[in-house]
Please model this.
Amino acid sequence: MAATDVTAMKKNMKRRQQKRNLVAYSFIAPNFIGFAVFTLGPIILALLMSFAEWDGSNPMKFVGFDNFINIFKDERFLASLKNTIVYSVFTVPVTLIMALGLAILLNQKIKGTNFFRTVAFFPYVASLVAVAAVWNMLFTPAKGGIVNQLIINVFHGEALKWAASSSTVMLTIIMFSVWKNMGYYMVIYLAGLQGISEDLYEAASLDGANSWQKFRHITVPQLKPTTFFVTIMLTINCFKVYDIVYMLAGGSNGVVNKSAMVLVYYIYEEAFRNWKLGQASAAALVLFAIVLVVTLIQFRGEKNYAND
Amino acid sequence: MKKKILSSLLAMTMVVASITACGEAADTTTTETADTQASTEAAPATEAATEAAAETADATSDEPVTLKWALWDVSSTVYYQPLIDAYTAAHPNVTIEMVDLGSTDYSTVLGTQLSGSGSDFDVVTVKDVPGYVSLVNKGVLEPLNDLIAQDGVDLSLYNGVTDQVTIDGNLYELPFRSDIWVLYYNKDIFDAAGVDYPTNDMTWDEYDALARSVTDTTAGSEIYGAHYHTWRSTIQLDGILDGKNTIVDGSYEFTKPYYEMVLNQQKDGVCMDYATLKTQGLHYSAAFAQGNVATMNMGTWFIATLIEKINSGEYTDCTNWGIVKYPHADGVEAGSTLSTITALAIPTSAPNKDAAWDFVKFVSGSEGAEVMASTGNIPAMTNDKIVDLIASMEGFPTDEASKEALVTSHTYLEMPANDKSSEIETVLNEQHDLIMNEEITVDEGIAAMNEGVQAIIGQ
Model:
């Protein structure tokens, strides 16, 4: 009697639990279905396609690892890999430092803070197409360009060709990217700074700490979670860069040269200009692997400091 | 265990869902810009036309048919609606729905739409030869040979262009528009400088000397004797006009004299600096409209734009323009020039192939050609009547030389039908950019082109 009661109760509980689960699932369903249809599905397809030769309409042909071998023989792919890494290696730390510096400056109680915050944030919200056009006007390769005039007359240097030359195009892109995005990360840092308790600074002042010591031993450690988040977001965004390169170095026919080609542009070109969907998918998987590895390393770093 | 099965099932359904979703997505986007009202309005055009309809429409049935036509730039292209009006006047049972895929990525978008089975276009416009070749390779275009033979379409009227786009003995498109390259010039600049106008028979040396003679490098009031848009075709392809080389041969020594001529002009301020043009993205029409460009090599598609913008008062500094034949190499007949064709094709997935073929035949044929000419555009099928029609258009230069300029002796496609054309383009564009930026010498650029293209051909 008692035993059956218990099993009945257990059954009942189980049913209730299932019901609750279903309700919960139904809540996440709208988002999850969208994710599954528009993100998960294509990812799985890309995985399959990377081992096949396909032009989008003729039958798919399984080719094993040929696509991967081919892209690593393709100097355009290697150039795009190199450029993406160079871009990330410079853009991530520079943006991080600029954003942190700006955040600290604009966290002071000075007149017009809100105005300056808006100024710093503005490039991020402005339309990429518009600011890229202005940027290309300032950094025009002509000797009469504003920046070139500055270089010639103030620094007595030589006029540079900026986005038009293969030696300076990455520099131009990195500068543009830092300028455009630092405002966004500044806002994240500002939020982080305001979350630091004043008590810590006060206690440090009483102990005779100077500004640098306060920054080094209070601000930086307290901002670690923010820095972690910013670094991951920045790195992933850097590897995904495409629009900035297209706008600054694409010219009038949208053709980006080897000197400025990045991974995502290579994927686009292989897939939709040359109709080599397999090769493009293989390149996309390489990109995925890189981002995954970088993120895992960063997560490990996060764990280490959390244990301190 | 159960959970695992459930989640893997879920994953599978998701994959399937995403595949079907792909097909459907293609379906819905095509109807976005449909423009059906105009063709129904145009139906009761003239009584004579309806009479003609009774005669010509007997080939196809009178049941109502809607043809879906893929094209670009509906709002700024002047000939789509007149073509549709002319056709539907004769075929009242046909409605034509235009689907605008945008001009920038037209070939890419069209290729994507025709992949798989989601699209239901009856007629597609083919923008350029590389786009054509990639569609043919994908196997999504219907071969037209049988239809051409059955209806006795005379391909000789297309001046040999159809031979250049025949692939393995099959023709998959019929051209309806064919642009040639000419030299535009601003008469006011020549008048002010007291220099004679360019002529229909100039060698490249004479052209170079002429451009230099009107150049003024005074800062602030520069006059550029020549203008080259950033496309590689403005320079590289000048070299194929002697008929001895093609752009897909894998050896590019023939481009050297033209690069040297333009680089010297660039150095001497005869033309604008390539790097500046590239980064500022200055459009060739804007450059010519500034009124300080004396001559510019460009295709005849610019004629309709020029006339329209001058009429609307947008262009005020280049109202006094003219055209002459493309300059030519020594010992080559004047009138050799580059051409591009715009053509119609029928996808293999088209729901109404017979009706589509009838429409294609009309647009590419002599009736369509007259409609094209009356809007200032050059049809693929040309004869004296067509040239007269264009030259008599309001706003077309009135001098005899400009009319004569439209008559060609030899035309060469900008890009011949070749399997590897898009990959070859990538190599040529890259080296063109480096040469024009003076990052490498012309010889280095040519060596790199030879090496790169030969590697592609050898694959």
Observations:
- Residues 204 and 219 of chain A are 11 Å apart (CA to CA).
- Chain A is about 75% helix and 0% strand.
- Chain A touches chain B at residues 36-38, 40-42, 44-45, 55-58, 76, 133, 136-137, 139-142, 161-167, 248, 251-255, 257-258, 269, 272-275 (CB under 8 Å).
- The first strand of chain A starts at residue 52 and ends at 53.
